[in-house]
């Protein structure tokens, strides 16, 4: 018995050609933004959902958007182990700027809240082995009313590069017309490239375009490393549900485009805040891993429960999110009780499977499903080993292709599994303890 590296034994000639084609495609993904970045979904921390636009440091010294806040988060990202599990980008959102550009027309930080300047903050963040993200807007103003980049794309890109910034979240408020929106996102992408600095480029282009026009994801991926499709997340189960429902509704379009260098962004992780129950936090973590989503936490690392921290730092879940194959997962069924079954193809022929219980009444419910159809019939063929990853890690043993698996899922919770195919040398139906859980 051996864990298989590729599908269905020795590849045929046709299989080899197909493998070669896949390898070539992976080596130079057709039309992805060629900055060499975001080969797996970016991970880090972004201030918006938790800290919003608090600018009053006199009244709210610990909550206001200031260099102190980012330095504290940088310290904690290192001392509390966040960096070591992969959370690397420490990202500033809106409200860092002074109300006006400087005499040379450059953006400048608010002098009271960022007295040392962004360049010094970037140095500090880099000294911790982290990277710094910043925020700007394609239009005349940012969403909170600070100076927009319209008319200044090249200058702003050059300014960010001179400060040592590593990621730009480029918002779309006050975009003018759809033509200016598209032109702005493309121009900023070229301007970032021209700086010569490696800067991850996060777009909200499809989000602003969608109400009027179908996004052309092929084009968006040529310019952006990841992009928002749906409205801002907020700290409630309703928001998580909306994002999951929208994502599965458009999943054919969204999964087709995601891959190394370009990702769909369902927005920040709100785990560790106030609005989600424990099971709902598990659901967000599991499904963000299934969706190959950027993992950008927006929480207060100074005040986070050990349970939420362990969930966010769960290495098995992060490994699924960061799987090098870079295929986004999708929903395969939804039943009348509200159970959803999602799958995500992983490298080496493995699969991640998520079973979500959407019922919001009652207690834990059993869900039984056939392994035969997972991965188009290949995930467990002829047999597989199943590891439960969430809500707790445990080995569920070996199973054969025709088995059913039964899991018990709490209301609004999720069970996350990893399935590794097993090549049986002997008849599977033989003496092994394969079979039903
Ligand atoms: C700029 O784009 C070119 C080709 O598109 C690419 O080879 C290069 O690495 C990019 N540079 C940066 C800094 O992103
Ligand atoms: C920004 O404002 C100027 C002057 O009012 C206007 O010409 C331009 O179209 C605006 N740009 C956008 C993107 O709205
Ligand atoms: C989408 O963009 C791609 C790349 O720019 C282009 O080749 C294609 O024609 C566009 N599709 C549509 C429907 O406009
Ligand atoms: C999704 O993709 C299909 C097939 O390419 C296309 O016809 C459809 O317009 C797309 N839908 C959206 C919302 O982009």
TrEMBL record:
It is an enzyme of class 3 (hydrolase). Residues 1-32 form the signal peptide. Its EC number is 3.2.1.-. Its main location: other. GO terms for biological process: glycoside catabolic process; glycosphingolipid catabolic process; oligosaccharide metabolic process. It is found in: Lysosome. GO terms for molecular function: alpha-galactosidase activity. It comes from the Eukaryota. Keywords: Disulfide bond, Glycoprotein, Glycosidase, Hydrolase, Lipid metabolism, Lysosome, Signal. Gene3D superfamilies: Aldolase class I, Golgi alpha-mannosidase II. Residues 326-413 form the Alpha galactosidase A C-terminal domain. The keyword Cell wall biogenesis/degradation does not apply. GO terms for cellular component: extracellular region; lysosome; membrane. It catalyses: a globoside Gb3Cer + H2O = a beta-D-galactosyl-(1->4)-beta-D-glucosyl-(1<->1)-ceramide + D-galactose; Hydrolysis of terminal, non-reducing alpha-D-galactose residues in alpha-D-galactosides, including galactose oligosaccharides, galactomannans and galactolipids; a globoside Gb3Cer (d18:1(4E)) + H2O = a beta-D-Gal-(1->4)-beta-D-Glc-(1<->1)-Cer(d18:1(4E)) + D-galactose. PANTHER family: ALPHA-GALACTOSIDASE A, ALPHA-GALACTOSIDASE/ALPHA-N-ACETYLGALACTOSAMINIDASE. Catalyzes the hydrolysis of glycosphingolipids and participates in their degradation in the lysosome. Belongs to the glycosyl hydrolase 27 family. Homodimer. This is Alpha-galactosidase. It comes from Eublepharis macularius (Leopard gecko).
